[in-house]
Design goal:
Blueprint lengths: L3 H6 L3 H11 L22 H25 L24 E3 L6 E6 L5 E9 L12 H12 L5 H10 L3 E6 L3 E9 L3 H13 L5 H17 L3 H13 L12 H4 L5 H11 L6 E6 L7 H5 L24 E6 L5 E9 L7 H11 L4 H9 L5 E8 L4 E9 L4 H17 L4 H18 L3 H13 L3 H6 L1 H6 L3 H11 L6 E6 L2 H9 L1
Helix pairs in contact: 4-7, 4-10, 12-15, 12-19, 13-14, 14-19
């Protein structure tokens, strides 16, 4: 492993071609087709598929080669192969950089890898979306990344790849922006590419139509069972306002968005707005602060002020029933919970550890009673509201039994007592989960950002683990009592296919 990078640098172009010829042969391939039920499965034979592909590959490859030979390709910038990176296990604390009329910048020096990770995040976005423009922030950010500023799309991403860089769009409930990771020795030219994206976005109408198609396809392809539950339960949990608009309705509303509406959203939330900048990685102290902060500094740059609006408390118990086209059912129970910045947030984190995953609720229902195929409990603190939601994937016909078991576990947590062993185990689990998150640069950067937006500052991040450890058992009991109120719960039943459900009821 010590010579891995050196061995990579020794690879020649002839080696790449040799390996391609050796392994990328028809005799070595397997074909897997995953098609919608409406299409049907055709009875193809191996010989038929091979002859079809072989008949298409050669002319297609020749056509592509002819196009490439006539194409004018501008040169790419090739970075120096050498660098002066030195490994170190020391992780320095976060430092705050002060830039005159500039953004807030938080930097952690960490030399465990030759990478610099940067989060550039703007407050708002999805926070202020409505039913009419739900999904506009996500669409805008993806358009910015794909459009790649003034450069041609393929040239931007190819150059970024050469620098050893990665650019990901990030859209959360309270903020949005970019996660940028790159080899430290190539940071300066890579950051200039990033600034092209942020400062000179291109919202081309044709590219916008393509991006809408891609987003719709991804919505179907990567939609999880939790997404299906959130689409139904969050609008009720948050009274059809605030954080409720950014879920099930976004797939329909983005179809009506135009290049002009994206431009207006960009003008409102990004242009001449100060972002929150968090840097983690192979840097020397705060040496990058001025370089990173300069593009966002000046008297014209303003701080985005988020509205002081909070989710209204539920006035009564809500129940939802619907059907989906799957073989298993899903039941869920949700409660409003402390938001980010609330002092009760730490007790809620420990409460999640007490009940969820390997905790009491999941063990009781999934392991001891064997009543759920999948079961999880998620606490999601947002800036102006929070939620604790239990999700269970169950067999048809067991929906009511599992829902009743979930309610009993919630009420037992709200009214019962906690043994010292269970309490300390929950605290340790919460602390361990936080420590694990800090091993992933993106999650570490997002945790810092949430604390900054909540008004807790960098000190809120630094003291987070200490506050988790100091949650008393009494706070755990009072937190459960205040959150898990039956009269304020939202319950959900998503039944399996109607055919399966009727068969189950008939039995």
């Amino acid at each position: 492993i010590d010579r891995h990078m050196a061995d990579l640098r020794m690879v020649q172009a002839s080696d790449v071609k040799r390996v391609a010829v050796k392994y990328l042969q028809m005799e070595n391939c397997s074909l897997f087709e995953y098609v919608p039920e409406t299409v049907g499965i055709e009875n193809r034979t191996v010989d038929t598929i091979r002859s079809t592909l072989q008949g298409l590959l050669t002319p297609a490859a020749n056509q592509e080669q002819n196009l490439r030979e006539r194409e004018t390709v501008l040169p790419f910038e090739m970075p120096d192969k050498e660098d002066d990176y030195k490994f170190s296990r020391i992780r320095y604390p976060f430092l705050t950089a002060s830039i005159l009329r500039g953004p807030e910048i938080f930097i952690r020096e960490d030399h465990v890898s030759p990478l610099v990770h940067v989060g550039i995040f703007f407050p708002g976005g999805r926070f202020d979306e409505t039913e009419q423009n739900s999904g506009i922030t996500n669409l805008m950010i993806r358009m910015m990344v794909q459009g790649a500023g003034k450069k041609m799309d393929y040239r931007f991403h190819r150059q970024l790849e050469i620098y050893g860089g990665q650019l990901l769009p990030v859209v959360e409930d309270d903020y949005f922006g970019f996660y940028f990771s790159i080899l430290s020795k190539n940071f300066n030219p890579g950051f200039r590419l990033l600034m092209d994206v942020v400062k000179s976005p291109v919202f081309d109408a044709n590219a916008l139509d393509q991006q809408k198609v891609l987003l719709s396809a991804q919505h179907v392809q990567y939609r999880s069972w939790k997404d299906s539950a959130d689409d139904e339960i969050l609008p009720k949990l948050f009274n059809n306002s605030l954080y409720a608009a950014g879920h099930s309705r976004s797939d329909q509303s983005i179809q009506g968005l135009t290049s002009e509406s994206l431009e207006e959203w960009y003008e409102q939330y990004i242009k001449d707005r100060k972002p929150i900048v968090v840097i983690v990685g192979d840097v020397e102290g705060t040496s990058l602060a001025t370089y990173v902060g300069r593009p966002f500094s000046g008297s014209r740059f303003q701080v985005t002020e988020l509205a002081e609006k909070y989710a209204e408390p539920l006035e009564k118990k809500e129940s939802i029933e619907t059907v989906w086209d799957r073989n298993l059912s899903l039941v869920s129970i949700g409660f409003q919970a402390p938001p980010t910045g609330d002092p009760d947030r730490y007790a809620a984190e420990v409460l999640q550890s007490y009940l969820g995953n390997s905790g009491k609720m999941c063990h009781e229902i999934r392991e001891r009673l064997g009543m759920a195929h999948k079961l999880s409990l998620d606490y999601e603190p947002r800036l102006r509201a929070g939620s604790i939601i239990a999700y269970a994937v169950v067999s048809p016909g067991t929906e009511e039994a599992v829902l009743s078991a979930l309610e009993k576990e919630f009420q037992r947590s709200a009214t019962g007592s906690y043994t010292y062993r269970d309490y300390r185990s929950a605290v340790n689990t919460a602390v361990g989960a936080f420590q694990l998150r800090q091993q992933i640069p993106l999650l570490q950067i997002m945790d810092v950002t949430r604390n900054i937006l909540a008004g807790d500052g960098i000190e809120g991040y630094r003291s987070f683990q200490t506050k988790l450890k100091s949650v008393p058992a009494g706070d755990l009991e009072s937190s459960a009592e205040s959150i898990f109120k039956t009269e304020n719960e939202v319950s959900l039943r998503i039944y399996s296919k109607p055919l399966n459900r009727n068969a189950s009821e008939a039995e």
